[in-house]
Amino acid sequence: MALGAGASGCTTTAVVFLHVQSKVNEGEPLPCVKLNSVARALSPRCGDFVPGSLKPQDVAQAGLAECPLTLAARDPQFWPLLPELRARGARIETCVTPPWVALAQAPAQLKASAEACPPYHLASAEALATLKWLGEADPRAVHHDVMRILSCPAAQSAGLDSVLNQWRVQGRLAPRQLAFSPFGALHPSHLNSELAGKLEATGHQAALAFQGRDEGQLPPGFEVALRTSDWPALVWWLDRQPSLLQGVPAMRGKPVGWLPLARVLSPGFMPTEHQGPMLDFLLARGANPWQRLPHSPGQSVVQYAQQLQSPWLATLDPPWRPAVTAQQATTGR
Q1: I need a labelling partner for 136 at 20 to 30 A (CA). Which of 12, 56, 73, 281 fits?
Q2: Could you tell me the CA-to-CA distances from 267 to 96, 262, 272, 308 in Å, in that order?
Protein backbone atom coordinates (compact mmCIF):
# COMPACT_ATOMS: atom_id res chain seq x y z
CA MET A 1 0.00 0.00 0.00
CA ALA A 2 2.87 2.33 0.86
CA LEU A 3 4.42 1.62 -2.49
CA GLY A 4 1.11 2.35 -4.23
CA ALA A 5 0.70 5.56 -2.31
CA GLY A 6 4.24 6.57 -3.20
CA ALA A 7 3.70 5.85 -6.88
CA SER A 8 0.48 7.82 -6.86
CA GLY A 9 2.23 10.73 -5.24
CA CYS A 10 4.97 10.66 -7.88
CA THR A 11 2.40 10.58 -10.67
CA THR A 12 0.55 13.54 -9.20
CA THR A 13 3.79 15.45 -8.84
CA ALA A 14 4.72 14.71 -12.45
CA VAL A 15 1.34 15.88 -13.73
CA VAL A 16 1.61 19.08 -11.69
CA PHE A 17 5.16 19.61 -13.00
CA LEU A 18 4.06 19.18 -16.64
CA HIS A 19 1.13 21.56 -16.08
CA VAL A 20 3.43 24.19 -14.57
CA GLN A 21 5.96 23.65 -17.36
CA SER A 22 3.27 24.09 -20.03
CA LYS A 23 2.25 27.37 -18.42
CA VAL A 24 5.86 28.57 -18.30
CA ASN A 25 6.33 27.68 -21.99
CA GLU A 26 2.93 29.03 -23.04
CA GLY A 27 3.28 31.08 -26.21
CA GLU A 28 6.58 29.45 -27.21
CA PRO A 29 6.80 27.36 -30.41
CA LEU A 30 5.96 23.71 -30.11
CA PRO A 31 8.93 21.34 -30.07
CA CYS A 32 9.71 20.01 -33.54
CA VAL A 33 8.80 16.45 -32.49
CA LYS A 34 5.24 17.58 -31.79
CA LEU A 35 4.73 19.19 -35.20
CA ASN A 36 3.16 17.28 -38.06
CA SER A 37 5.38 16.45 -41.02
CA VAL A 38 4.38 19.50 -43.10
CA ALA A 39 4.66 22.03 -40.28
CA ARG A 40 8.02 20.55 -39.32
CA ALA A 41 9.33 20.77 -42.89
CA LEU A 42 8.21 24.42 -43.12
CA SER A 43 9.93 25.39 -39.87
CA PRO A 44 13.54 26.58 -40.30
CA ARG A 45 14.34 25.77 -36.68
CA CYS A 46 13.59 22.10 -37.28
CA GLY A 47 16.41 21.51 -39.74
CA ASP A 48 16.50 20.79 -43.45
CA PHE A 49 13.62 19.12 -45.23
CA VAL A 50 14.00 15.37 -45.60
CA PRO A 51 12.61 14.16 -48.96
CA GLY A 52 9.89 11.55 -48.53
CA SER A 53 8.95 12.75 -45.06
CA LEU A 54 5.64 14.46 -45.90
CA LYS A 55 2.55 12.49 -44.99
CA PRO A 56 -0.54 12.81 -47.23
CA GLN A 57 -2.84 13.32 -44.24
CA ASP A 58 -0.65 16.18 -43.04
CA VAL A 59 -0.66 17.77 -46.49
CA ALA A 60 -4.46 17.66 -46.52
CA GLN A 61 -4.80 18.89 -42.92
CA ALA A 62 -1.62 20.77 -42.13
CA GLY A 63 -3.26 22.96 -39.48
CA LEU A 64 -1.35 26.03 -40.67
CA ALA A 65 -2.54 29.61 -41.11
CA GLU A 66 -1.93 29.36 -44.87
CA CYS A 67 -1.85 26.48 -47.31
CA PRO A 68 1.46 24.58 -47.62
CA LEU A 69 1.86 25.45 -51.31
CA THR A 70 1.79 29.18 -50.57
CA LEU A 71 4.15 28.87 -47.61
CA ALA A 72 6.61 26.82 -49.64
CA ALA A 73 6.41 28.96 -52.79
CA ARG A 74 6.95 32.33 -51.15
CA ASP A 75 10.30 31.43 -49.57
CA PRO A 76 13.05 29.94 -51.79
CA GLN A 77 14.46 27.96 -48.88
CA PHE A 78 11.29 25.85 -48.96
CA TRP A 79 11.14 25.29 -52.72
CA PRO A 80 12.47 21.71 -52.26
CA LEU A 81 9.09 20.86 -50.67
CA LEU A 82 7.05 21.88 -53.71
CA PRO A 83 7.35 18.71 -55.82
CA GLU A 84 6.48 16.48 -52.87
CA LEU A 85 3.57 18.67 -51.80
CA ARG A 86 2.14 18.37 -55.28
CA ALA A 87 2.73 14.61 -55.36
CA ARG A 88 1.02 14.21 -51.96
CA GLY A 89 -2.13 15.96 -53.18
CA ALA A 90 -1.72 19.60 -52.12
CA ARG A 91 -4.49 21.70 -53.69
CA ILE A 92 -4.17 25.27 -54.92
CA GLU A 93 -7.88 25.84 -54.19
CA THR A 94 -7.20 25.76 -50.45
CA CYS A 95 -4.76 28.67 -50.66
CA VAL A 96 -6.07 32.02 -49.42
CA THR A 97 -3.15 33.82 -51.03
CA PRO A 98 -2.10 32.49 -54.45
CA PRO A 99 1.39 30.96 -54.19
CA TRP A 100 2.86 33.12 -56.97
CA VAL A 101 1.43 36.32 -55.52
CA ALA A 102 2.92 35.39 -52.15
CA LEU A 103 6.34 34.97 -53.77
CA ALA A 104 6.10 38.24 -55.73
CA GLN A 105 5.03 40.19 -52.64
CA ALA A 106 7.22 38.46 -50.06
CA PRO A 107 9.09 40.96 -47.84
CA ALA A 108 12.43 39.79 -49.23
CA GLN A 109 11.26 40.38 -52.79
CA LEU A 110 9.81 43.83 -52.05
CA LYS A 111 12.97 44.80 -50.17
CA ALA A 112 15.20 43.79 -53.07
CA SER A 113 16.13 46.21 -55.82
CA ALA A 114 13.37 47.06 -58.26
CA GLU A 115 14.69 44.85 -61.01
CA ALA A 116 15.60 41.87 -58.82
CA CYS A 117 14.40 38.37 -59.62
CA PRO A 118 13.80 35.58 -57.13
CA PRO A 119 16.79 33.20 -57.00
CA TYR A 120 15.43 30.73 -59.52
CA HIS A 121 18.92 29.36 -60.07
CA LEU A 122 18.66 27.74 -56.62
CA ALA A 123 15.61 25.69 -57.61
CA SER A 124 15.89 22.10 -58.79
CA ALA A 125 14.37 21.07 -62.10
CA GLU A 126 11.53 19.44 -60.18
CA ALA A 127 10.87 22.59 -58.13
CA LEU A 128 10.90 24.73 -61.28
CA ALA A 129 8.39 22.36 -62.88
CA THR A 130 6.12 22.73 -59.85
CA LEU A 131 6.43 26.52 -59.90
CA LYS A 132 5.49 26.43 -63.56
CA TRP A 133 2.47 24.26 -62.74
CA LEU A 134 1.41 26.69 -60.03
CA GLY A 135 1.53 29.53 -62.54
CA GLU A 136 -0.44 27.72 -65.22
CA ALA A 137 -3.03 26.01 -63.01
CA ASP A 138 -3.97 28.96 -60.78
CA PRO A 139 -6.02 31.70 -62.54
CA ARG A 140 -5.25 34.04 -59.65
CA ALA A 141 -1.58 34.01 -60.62
CA VAL A 142 -2.40 36.44 -63.44
CA HIS A 143 -1.27 39.47 -61.47
CA HIS A 144 0.87 42.58 -62.02
CA ASP A 145 3.64 41.55 -59.63
CA VAL A 146 3.67 37.93 -60.76
CA MET A 147 4.05 39.02 -64.37
CA ARG A 148 7.10 41.03 -63.32
CA ILE A 149 8.93 38.14 -61.68
CA LEU A 150 7.93 35.75 -64.47
CA SER A 151 9.48 38.04 -67.10
CA CYS A 152 12.69 39.08 -65.34
CA PRO A 153 16.01 37.82 -66.75
CA ALA A 154 16.40 34.97 -64.27
CA ALA A 155 12.88 33.72 -65.06
CA GLN A 156 13.73 33.80 -68.76
CA SER A 157 16.90 31.79 -68.09
CA ALA A 158 14.91 29.24 -66.07
CA GLY A 159 12.21 28.96 -68.74
CA LEU A 160 9.50 30.24 -66.42
CA ASP A 161 8.52 33.01 -68.82
CA SER A 162 6.77 30.29 -70.82
CA VAL A 163 3.97 30.61 -68.25
CA LEU A 164 3.24 34.07 -69.69
CA ASN A 165 3.03 32.66 -73.20
CA GLN A 166 0.60 30.06 -71.91
CA TRP A 167 -1.56 32.77 -70.34
CA ARG A 168 -1.73 34.56 -73.67
CA VAL A 169 -2.67 31.39 -75.57
CA GLN A 170 -5.37 30.65 -72.99
CA GLY A 171 -6.82 34.14 -73.41
CA ARG A 172 -5.98 35.23 -69.88
CA LEU A 173 -4.17 38.35 -71.15
CA ALA A 174 -6.92 39.57 -73.48
CA PRO A 175 -7.38 43.37 -73.61
CA ARG A 176 -9.98 44.92 -71.31
CA GLN A 177 -10.08 41.80 -69.13
CA LEU A 178 -7.23 42.66 -66.77
CA ALA A 179 -6.95 44.87 -63.70
CA PHE A 180 -3.48 45.90 -64.85
CA SER A 181 -1.52 46.66 -68.01
CA PRO A 182 0.77 43.86 -69.21
CA PHE A 183 3.25 46.48 -70.42
CA GLY A 184 3.38 48.15 -67.03
CA ALA A 185 3.81 44.73 -65.42
CA LEU A 186 6.44 43.23 -67.71
CA HIS A 187 10.06 43.47 -66.67
CA PRO A 188 11.74 46.13 -68.88
CA SER A 189 13.98 43.48 -70.43
CA HIS A 190 10.89 41.73 -71.81
CA LEU A 191 9.35 44.69 -73.64
CA ASN A 192 11.05 43.85 -76.94
CA SER A 193 10.12 40.17 -76.70
CA GLU A 194 7.89 38.19 -79.03
CA LEU A 195 5.25 38.10 -76.28
CA ALA A 196 5.17 41.90 -76.01
CA GLY A 197 4.82 42.19 -79.77
CA LYS A 198 1.86 39.81 -79.78
CA LEU A 199 0.21 41.65 -76.89
CA GLU A 200 0.54 44.92 -78.76
CA ALA A 201 -0.87 43.33 -81.92
CA THR A 202 -3.97 42.22 -79.99
CA GLY A 203 -4.74 45.74 -78.76
CA HIS A 204 -2.72 46.39 -75.61
CA GLN A 205 -1.32 49.95 -75.60
CA ALA A 206 1.52 51.60 -73.73
CA ALA A 207 -0.75 54.50 -72.75
CA LEU A 208 -3.06 52.18 -70.83
CA ALA A 209 -0.22 51.33 -68.47
CA PHE A 210 -0.79 54.68 -66.78
CA GLN A 211 -4.54 54.41 -66.37
CA GLY A 212 -6.58 52.74 -63.68
CA ARG A 213 -5.40 51.05 -60.52
CA ASP A 214 -4.15 47.60 -59.72
CA GLU A 215 -3.09 45.64 -56.65
CA GLY A 216 0.59 45.59 -57.57
CA GLN A 217 3.21 46.38 -54.96
CA LEU A 218 6.20 46.30 -57.30
CA PRO A 219 6.94 49.62 -59.06
CA PRO A 220 5.56 50.32 -62.56
CA GLY A 221 7.68 49.13 -65.47
CA PHE A 222 8.57 52.58 -66.85
CA GLU A 223 9.90 53.65 -63.45
CA VAL A 224 12.03 50.50 -63.25
CA ALA A 225 13.41 51.10 -66.74
CA LEU A 226 14.38 54.65 -65.74
CA ARG A 227 15.98 53.62 -62.46
CA THR A 228 18.02 50.84 -64.03
CA SER A 229 19.04 52.74 -67.19
CA ASP A 230 17.45 50.14 -69.41
CA TRP A 231 17.97 52.03 -72.66
CA PRO A 232 16.08 49.68 -75.03
CA ALA A 233 13.07 49.70 -72.67
CA LEU A 234 13.14 53.50 -72.36
CA VAL A 235 13.25 53.87 -76.14
CA TRP A 236 10.31 51.45 -76.34
CA TRP A 237 8.28 53.54 -73.89
CA LEU A 238 9.14 56.97 -75.31
CA ASP A 239 8.61 55.93 -78.92
CA ARG A 240 5.04 54.99 -77.98
CA GLN A 241 4.38 57.58 -75.28
CA PRO A 242 6.63 60.64 -75.76
CA SER A 243 4.45 62.67 -73.39
CA LEU A 244 6.09 60.80 -70.49
CA LEU A 245 8.99 63.23 -70.83
CA GLN A 246 6.65 66.02 -69.72
CA GLY A 247 5.17 64.05 -66.87
CA VAL A 248 4.17 60.59 -65.69
CA PRO A 249 0.52 60.47 -64.53
CA ALA A 250 -0.35 59.82 -60.90
CA MET A 251 -0.97 56.14 -60.23
CA ARG A 252 -2.14 53.88 -57.40
CA GLY A 253 -3.92 56.59 -55.47
CA LYS A 254 -1.03 59.07 -55.41
CA PRO A 255 -2.22 62.69 -55.65
CA VAL A 256 0.27 63.94 -58.26
CA GLY A 257 2.46 62.57 -61.02
CA TRP A 258 6.20 63.04 -61.45
CA LEU A 259 8.81 64.27 -63.94
CA PRO A 260 11.52 61.88 -65.16
CA LEU A 261 14.20 64.62 -65.00
CA ALA A 262 13.37 65.36 -61.37
CA ARG A 263 13.09 61.70 -60.44
CA VAL A 264 16.56 61.03 -61.85
CA LEU A 265 17.94 63.84 -59.66
CA SER A 266 16.21 62.55 -56.51
CA PRO A 267 18.69 61.21 -53.94
CA GLY A 268 18.72 57.43 -53.82
CA PHE A 269 16.69 56.90 -56.98
CA MET A 270 19.70 55.75 -59.01
CA PRO A 271 23.50 55.74 -58.63
CA THR A 272 24.98 59.25 -58.97
CA GLU A 273 27.29 58.15 -61.77
CA HIS A 274 24.28 57.04 -63.81
CA GLN A 275 22.46 60.35 -63.47
CA GLY A 276 24.51 62.24 -66.07
CA PRO A 277 23.97 59.83 -68.98
CA MET A 278 20.27 59.55 -68.13
CA LEU A 279 19.82 63.32 -68.02
CA ASP A 280 21.59 63.61 -71.39
CA PHE A 281 19.27 60.97 -72.82
CA LEU A 282 16.09 62.60 -71.53
CA LEU A 283 17.16 66.08 -72.65
CA ALA A 284 18.04 64.77 -76.11
CA ARG A 285 14.55 63.28 -76.34
CA GLY A 286 12.95 66.64 -75.51
CA ALA A 287 12.56 66.84 -71.73
CA ASN A 288 12.24 70.43 -70.46
CA PRO A 289 14.53 71.30 -67.49
CA TRP A 290 12.49 74.47 -66.77
CA GLN A 291 9.25 72.57 -66.37
CA ARG A 292 7.53 73.00 -63.01
CA LEU A 293 7.37 70.11 -60.59
CA PRO A 294 3.88 68.58 -60.18
CA HIS A 295 4.27 68.35 -56.40
CA SER A 296 5.84 71.84 -56.13
CA PRO A 297 4.50 74.13 -58.88
CA GLY A 298 6.67 77.03 -57.71
CA GLN A 299 9.85 75.12 -58.45
CA SER A 300 11.38 74.03 -61.76
CA VAL A 301 13.65 71.07 -62.36
CA VAL A 302 16.64 73.45 -62.58
CA GLN A 303 15.72 75.04 -59.24
CA TYR A 304 15.33 71.57 -57.74
CA ALA A 305 18.84 70.74 -58.94
CA GLN A 306 20.11 73.97 -57.36
CA GLN A 307 18.43 73.04 -54.08
CA LEU A 308 20.10 69.64 -54.14
CA GLN A 309 23.43 71.17 -55.17
CA SER A 310 23.43 68.58 -57.92
CA PRO A 311 26.71 68.05 -59.82
CA TRP A 312 24.57 67.94 -62.98
CA LEU A 313 23.25 71.50 -62.72
CA ALA A 314 25.34 72.61 -65.70
CA THR A 315 23.82 69.80 -67.76
CA LEU A 316 20.33 71.14 -67.08
CA ASP A 317 21.22 74.84 -67.21
CA PRO A 318 24.39 75.29 -69.30
CA PRO A 319 26.39 78.50 -68.69
CA TRP A 320 25.68 81.26 -71.21
CA ARG A 321 28.31 81.73 -73.88
CA PRO A 322 28.33 84.46 -76.57
CA ALA A 323 27.46 83.32 -80.05
CA VAL A 324 30.44 82.47 -82.25
CA THR A 325 30.58 84.45 -85.49
CA ALA A 326 31.49 82.86 -88.81
CA GLN A 327 34.83 84.73 -88.86
CA GLN A 328 35.73 83.57 -85.34
CA ALA A 329 34.83 80.00 -86.26
CA THR A 330 37.18 80.23 -89.30
CA THR A 331 40.13 82.03 -87.70
CA GLY A 332 39.79 80.71 -84.20
CA ARG A 333 39.99 84.30 -82.87
Answers
A1: 56
A2: 39, 10, 8, 9
